[in-house]
Write the structure tokens for this entry.
Amino acid sequence: DGFWIKDGQNFINVKKNLEGQLFLDISIYELNSLNTIGTFTSANKAVFDGQSLEIQDAEVYSLDESKNINNISFEKFDILNKLVSFDTDFIDSIKKSPEDLTTSMIIKQISYLSDNKLRSDIFELELYKRLIKPFTLIAMIIIGMLFNPMNILAYRISDLYISLTLFYGGVLMASNMIWAHEIVHFLSMGHFNGMI
């Protein structure tokens, strides 16, 4: 239940995440202007309040840009506070697939990944799928209304037969297709997609 996360110039590794509020065995690699490791911070525990990390008994190793191993300095802090740009909701979403996230959380993921120059393809794809679903549903209802024996034989547009019964038939057809998608999702993933 650990994770890696990039936050600006920091690469954060947490070996154990407890409820998104307590991180155990945490390491932070901070890059310098040359995109090499400038500072390495390690600690057994850090408390996360949704905006910053309160790192306890932190050990900080700093390396200047000369890359000379003799120029490594060491400092120890009882408490070291570090601001981050992610929140507890973001941490909770890390262990979920895009299909299980709310639309607002997907947008937040895309924004965060883009800001940190990381790929957000799978989240963008899931967002696009959700945006076109209402139009897909409308299209399925129209197809269900048009593709019936009476309308298939229509010679002119004015010959098309439209009724409330056909509309309900189209809704039923759309519903069947949605449930077919849900069943396939359940068989492959082991749970229904609540964001359908």
Summary: The first strand starts at residue 3 and ends at 7. The chain is about 40% helix and 30% strand.
